[in-house]
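User: Could you check the structure of this?
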Amino acid sequence: MPELPEVEALREFLDAHAVGRVLERAQPTAVNVLKTYDPPLTALEGGMVTAVARHGKFLDLTVGDLHLVVYLARAGWMRWQDALPEAPPRPGKGPLALRVRLSADGDGPAPGFDLTEAGTQKRLAVYCVTAPAEVPGIARLGPDPLAADFTRETLAGLLEGERRQVKGFLRDQGVLAGIGNAYSDEILHAARMSPFKPAARLDAEDTDRLYAAIQDTLREAVERSRGVAAGQLKKEKKSGLRVHGRTGEPCPVCGDTVREVSFSDSSLQYCPTCQTGGKLLADRRMSRLLK
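Assistant: Sure, the predicted structure tokens are below.
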């Protein structure tokens, strides 16, 4: 799933490649991708792209007086093409969900991008709105952890009265915007903190470590992604992860084996030595063995 660092890299890429061009055509090929109908998607056509913003995991292209907002969800992606095919895309069962054609340079080919989504669970969402706050997912977002006004005190205030485990706290978009499953694992590993630790039990030292880990992990990931071509960002993300998605591999810090806890639709990874004092966290698949 694209998270804050990858979406920020896509924002920077579009800022360099799409701003100043006219949006000539927005062509959906999947009926479920478009979540708004007024204004219609065709209202974007003929408008100039003047800015690209990020709201958590949402991309926001300002096109004339309107906004084209994209949520890539778990399996969505953006594929830039310097020369789009002349033939219009055909609706079908493939991964293509939306094609955006932009104005060309002189007599050259028209560039643009495709929004694609793998798998059978189609959650990629596109909105055409007059203001980003009209998108429900944006309206409920918590503060951006990389914003200048997100301080250690801001984090401490969010933790007050929190009853969930710290892993769930970090992933809640209404609490912090942009952190998902992968980077919450990475942040907790950097903070040397169990994903199951109750957020309400974090003391001042824990909060200091967690804040530093959020800042360092996300900023390092953004820096690694900066300048990487849009099509290579997934590979770049995976190469920079230390524990997430690396079950069974040695921890790059201490050498212990990275372990996994599985849930119905996701999993988390952690290092026992770095994060839980050597204790293995109960995995539902192995709970009988760990009792």
